[in-house]
Design brief:
With about 300 residues, the chain is an all-alpha fold. Helices cover about 70% and strands about 0% of the residues. The chain has helices at about 5-10, 20-30, 35-60, 60-65, 80-100, 100-120, 130-145, 155-180, 190-210, 225-255, 255-270, 270-280, 285-290, 295-300. The chain starts with a helix and ends in a 6-residue tail after the last helix.
Length: about 300
Amino acid sequence: MTARDWAELLRISALFTVPGDALAGAAAAGRRPDRSTALAMGASLCLYEAGMALNDWADRDEDAVDRPHRPIPSGRITPRAALTAAGALTAAGLALAARAGRPALGVATGVAATVWAYDLRLKHTPAGPAAMAAARGLDLALGAVATGAGPGRARPARTGLTAAALPACLLGAHTYAVTTVSRHEAQGGSTGAPLAALAAVAAVGGAVVGERPAPVRGGAVRPPRAAPARLLLTALTGAYLRTAARPLAHAALNPSPPLTQRAVGSGIRAMIPLQAALAARAGAAGSALAVMGLVPLARALSRKVSPT
């Protein structure tokens, strides 16, 4: 078992799509990233990688037919090692979340439960895409409830959850669309799934770039965004649409396995500009730009290790 084998099993090129969840969640809650945000980010990374290891363990018989080159069916990593890694990473993720406070641990437990349920039971059922969407939305909510809520700074968890509701739903909708397409990446042949995902991506982009509803506090109306903020939000939303939409259109026109796999990989990478756009939408331009800094890293690593 080499480092490259583990990198392939854990799909480390997709790992760069995870930190933006916590930063977008913190932005949605109106808080600056802090130590608890970093803990939530670490928890998210561990739980994501636990899901990757568990996914290959659960699919080892299917992969022996469809993807014999994967680390487990090819014999490069044993099933026992993959399952042990999934358990250890889940425990590490929950431990990091616990250090960010009880509300963060509660949300992280929901993420872990959803991930395990998806990989072991729900993946090949109609509920599979919804489970993946829920896991991703909860991961964003984890950043919202953790930020600013460390020891001695407790605040109601529902405050962060309420603030994160819309961005979590938008991220979840994108995840649902990509997961639906991924069900056909081995055999191809589906035109409807990429077309539906393309429509979902367009709807998510439209919702992100739209103006936030005015708060009802004291009857005050939120002023329009300043031109630079509006420009940044538009540019980030455009990057999201450009990353996700074109490969989906290609897969709809020619639903072959290679083009379907490319659409799924691009859909996964498109989460980064989507997270950045959600952070910019909440007024956190610094977090948005920091998230976008992960794009070239994800693109470069995806050439060596497939994210799907």
